[in-house]
Predict the structure.
Amino acid sequence: MAAFPIVETTLDRIVGGGQALGTFPDGRKLFVWGGLPGETVNVQVTKKRSKLVEGRVVEVLEPSPERIEPKDSQSYLSTSPWQIMAPEAETHYKAALIEEAFELHDIVLPEAIEVKTDGVRYGYRNKVEFSFYWDTSTDTLDLAFFVRASKGKIPVNATSLAKEPINVLAREIRDLLRTKSIEARSLKTLLIRCDQDGNCVWQLYVKDRWDDIITEQEANQLPAVGGEVIYSDPRSPASRITERLSSFGQTTLTDSVLGTEFSYATESFFQVNIPMYEMALRDMQKWLTQKSVVDMYSGVGTIGLTIGGDSPVLVELDESAVREMKRNTATLKKEAKVVHAASETALDYIAQDADIILDPPRAGLHADVIHRLLDVRPNRIVYLSCNPVTQARDVALLAEQYGIRYHVGYNFFPATPHIEHLVVLDLKP
């Protein structure tokens, strides 16, 4: 089969997924990673479909004045493809993506779109998942990331997005594994998290049941408070826990969110940029008016247990998150009601006299949740979203009874296309 071609195009604008849009020679839309609006570039095509083509920039012929040198020159496309744009340009394009998402559903946001940031562009991530790469020319094991728009991998020593203790620990574990007869094909991923003080925990996901791939003595010498070796079924490409093979030291972390202490497991969901998350929580708290608060997608409880008052209702499906949430609730001595269920099966907790907090996954709200909100008509809904496209869809469905009182964006993930957006909805008179 012939290799995909390299084509020249002039890029027009940034689109919803974070790519720049150009035109393929036959007129199809060309979605490009690594380019900016106004640039003329050579693009390596990576995928062809009937109505569109995808690719990545291999040469910039006429650069945009907004272009800057990426900090991770070899791997930025894998982790943070917007490293190539100045921070001011990033803020502009993120605001534009929010506006475009709502315009698609004929919603005009009532105020100019503000995107808040704390100015920290690198070193903000407290969680990184590395893959592994085997260099056949030197028979050497390396850390790696997957190449965007490809099944290939690129070897790395670090990522600039991570807090430095994560990069240090990743290299130490890589170097330890290099001393053993282990190739990359026997490993899945290395997940590392750290708290705000730089204490790290790790999980090594392997495809074989090796009890001694890392010994207790070796684990104790790593710059971490603890870690685990986990067997993950090789029939699935995802790094999921099939069996915990060995555990060393402390395998949970504790962090403070708005002065409230939370513990969380390495694999459970917890915010990766706590300072920006706290900024959003402070804004959300200003809009809570009822004594009763229902947090419908609670995770480990970081929203409801910080700003939800003394007795919030916390609804969460993920078992490990619920386990941590129950522990946090007990530690904090809160009278919270923890509901282990999918939000769409816990609709009775949505009450007219409660403020409803929504922070769903990227897919947005389940249709049954929307129907329940329209039926019960709580006075206020506080909706934080990691995907303005699905948020705009949901707001459009709620618009028959709700109006937008307030909205603002947050740059939780600098140098990437991802954007958080808060919308406060009030029941119409």
Summary: The two ends are 63 Å apart (CA to CA). The chain has nine helices and 22 strands. The chain has three domains: 6-67, 92-120+271-427, 127-254.
